[in-house]
Amino acid sequence: MLFNSPEFLIFGTLFFALWPIMRRGDNRRWVFITLMSLFFYGWWDWRYTFLFVATGLIDFFAGYGMVRWPSRRKLLLVTSLTANIGMLGFFKYLDFGLRNATTVLHWFGMEAHLPALRLILPVGISFYTFQSMSYTIDIYRGRLQPTRSVLHFFTSLSMFPHLVAGPIMRAADLQPQLVGTPRTTDEQKWDGTRLIVEGFFKKVVIADNLAPVVNRAFTAPTPLSHGPFWWVIMVMFAFQIYCDFSGYSDIARGLAKWMGYEFNLNFDHPYISASASEFWRRWHISLSSWFRDYVYIPLGGSRAGSWKESRNLWITMLVSGLWHGANWTFITWGALHALYLSIEKWTNWPARLAKLPGGRFASQVIVFLLVVIAWVFFRADTFSQAIRIIGIMLDVRRFHFDMPIEELDKNALVFLVLIALRQLWVALAPQRARLAPRLPSLAVLEPAVFVALILGAVYLRGPGSAFIYFQF
Questions:
Q1: Per-residue pLDDT averaged across 447-469, rounded?
Q2: Are the CB atoms for 104 and 44 separated by under 8 Å?
């Protein structure tokens, strides 16, 4: 069920109409949230709710058993990880593995045609398996006490705002909030409303209006041989995916606030980053921190010398790329970011550049351009298509400025201007904060912007589409 669908409007209206009654009493509240969340998830395909419940039960009993039978902690952890990674691998990576195995056998002169199963990927499986795994890992490490209530566990795991596309909420952050009747403050109601409106504007106005232009460019029989055109297209995609994904996170956080709960910030204006490491502290924060805490640091992090630190960094980023999709394009996207981070560690170029006049701004521009180049691999359908497009973008001979404007939607260019104004508004936040006491009239801007966002979401909607990260 999509947040931007009529079905969700009915679902959300019913949920919040019943919420004041159903939130009283832990068991009643947990049953209500779990059943409504499973209905929300099962709307897409009810059969996969059984998979979700099965893996959740394995992790619940594994976590409980680690305390009940301490001598079997490692076995129970391995069972939990095997179940989660096994399910993820089976549905998401089996066909990818079979295709590549066929290719490798062909290299060795062996003819083999391993059958592809063409399994449908359960929506949100990459998100809820990571959340569930963090529960058992934290219990194994002694950082979390397991809950004795299966309802409490499933309420945390299945809560519908974050269920299918994050943010990835760890049990240590969410489960304590679920004990006791939640009280929604006036501040939470306003912040939740603001986040939901901003999230819908990002998704249905910005992302959904940019998507058709980007899709048309990538589905053309041959890429248009024009450098500036592809830079414009990839800047559009950069903001399409940002507004699409951060829009979902904003709506999820807003819905949680209406319920009286707090979800972690998932995006913090990543395109103003002045270094690659800063970008990853601002982009998809819940996933970046997950890989840091459960992959990079367990491998040794930065504690074991520069060579091993680089090795750990590359492994983490390659796994991150593979998490996003079973395709060499995603793995290459992860490798490019590993290269950016490695060069940054070896040279410390952002800090050196920041010492010069205008250095931080120059760093921001450079990092943004590097991120845009990497996005080509993320968006391209094939590796060869990505290489060809990047070749066009970087070939100075193709930089003739007679822009083929007929290939671009003029409305999409207007939305790029809206994005630029939004970025400027964010960048001027410190100045606005300083001026606010002296210029009370600035306070009028917030409700005016709020009303403008609502009107935009109603009258400037693009063609409806699923959220990009549903495919992961």
A1: 78
A2: no
Question: Exposure string (b/e) for 90-119, b if CB count within 10 Å is 16 or more?
Answer: ebbeebbebeeebeeeeeeeeeeeeeeeee
For residue 427, the model assigns a pLDDT of 62
At 127-163, the pLDDT tens digits run 899 999 999 999 999 999 999 999 999 999 999 999 8
CA end-to-end span of the chain? 15
Do residues 384 and 323 both lie within one domain? yes
Distance CA 161, CA 15 (A): 12
Rounded-to-integer distance, Cα 257 and Cα 265, Å: 12
H helices of 69-178, in order, are 73-88, 94-107, 125-140, 150-158, 171-174
| pLDDT, tens digit (0-9, with 9 covering 90-100), for 247-303 | 999 999 999 999 999 999 999 989 989 999 999 999 999 999 999 999 999 998 878
Task: Judge whether 324 counts as a catalytic residue.
Answer: yes
Give me the domain span that covers residue 235. 187-471
Phi, psi of 404 (to 5 degrees): -75, 80
How far is residue 453 from each of residues 194, 220, 240, 402, 447, measured CA to CA in Å? 10, 33, 17, 34, 10
Number of H helices, E strands in the chain: 21, 0
Of 162, 324, 337, 400, the active-site residue reads 324
* Same-domain status, 157 and 191: no
Please indicate, yes or no, whether residues 132 and 232 belong to a single structural domain of this protein.
no
**What integer pLDDT is reported at residue 396 of this predicted model?**
79
260 backbone φψ class: left, alpha, beta (φ>0; ψ -120 to 50):
left
